[in-house]
Amino acid sequence: MIIFGQGAIRCHPFVQKEMNAANSGDVGAFDAAFFGHLGHIARTKWRMISYGVSGGAFIPSPVSGFEAKYYKAISRYSAVFALTADLALATLGGAMKRKEHLSGRFSDAFAWMFLAAAALKHFHDQGRPANQRAYLDWACTHALYETEAALFGVLDNLPGRFTAATIRRLAFPFGPIAKPLNDRQIEACAETILSDKDARDAITNDIYLPAADDPGLGALDGALAMVMAAGPARAKLDKARREGRIVKGSPTEMTAAAATAGIITPDEAALIKSAEEARDAVIQVSDFDPAVYDGLR
Terminal CA-to-CA distance of the chain, rounded, Å? Predict the structure, then answer.
């Protein structure tokens, strides 16, 4: 309620002026604010309709890169949000405070648009790094999907059913447009985190990282570093196995066979061995002897 109820009034370019003018009896100021408000609604309605009918094709974007579609989507959803909020305040008035689910959905839509805009600004401020595109794609796709879900939730529950149906037909003439995250986007984000240390550090630089010998996060990050370092040597093992130069077996057995055959060096064998030991250590779970477990109960 605080985010949307009072915030919508105080942040609106005309509502606060209308209220102040009405309270002070200033007819001139009220007329200026009132007719300005009507013009604001008309412009917002036109934006919403044109964006909806065109599918957002002609929405301007401050950039021309791959992220331009996200700037356009935010503009489109913001027009829907602005008009719907204006009409909700006009039709519900003070009752809006008691419509907590409705104001909560408005707040959700606003918050998700804010998060998408924040992700875009951060990406831009960092110089639009190519190795962080997967992050931006994940963040904006998810945020905009949740934004649309919140807006549809508002329209599904707005008391003025005719108003809600009209906005829905004008804003989304072809139905919902946002799609949830797909497997490709999720896997691309995970691959970036796992394989690119600079990209991983970009989203974890404010997180405390324990030493590699500390259990938990420290050991996990240390094991990842060792596995990545052993990657090229491990690739030699896989190639030798596919070519039939070594027999398929456990990593330890294949490493020993490859070292004996001269496929990898002793240093590479030691690197693989250390990485496998670290990997095995971090995936272990607690286990208890039955007698000890009975004692714990």
Answer: 47
Place of tokens 């799609």: 179
Ranked by mean pLDDT, the top range of 115-119, 251-255, 258-262 is: 115-119
Q: Give phi and psi for 285, each to the nearest 5.
A: -115, 160
- Residue 1 pLDDT grade (very low, low, confident, very high; cuts 50, 70, 90): very low
The pLDDT of residue 6: 65
Q: Answer yes or no: CATH 3.90.1150.10 is held by domain 2-194.
A: no
Task: Report the 10 Å Cβ neighbour count for 232.
Answer: 11
Question: Using CA atoms, how far apart are residues 144 and 140, in angstroms rounded to an integer?
Answer: 6
Q: Which residue has the tokens 């919902």?
A: 176
Average pLDDT of 267-275? 91
DSSP 227-259: HHHTHHHHHHHHHHHHTTSS----HHHHHHHHH
**138 sits in which H/E element:** helix 133-157
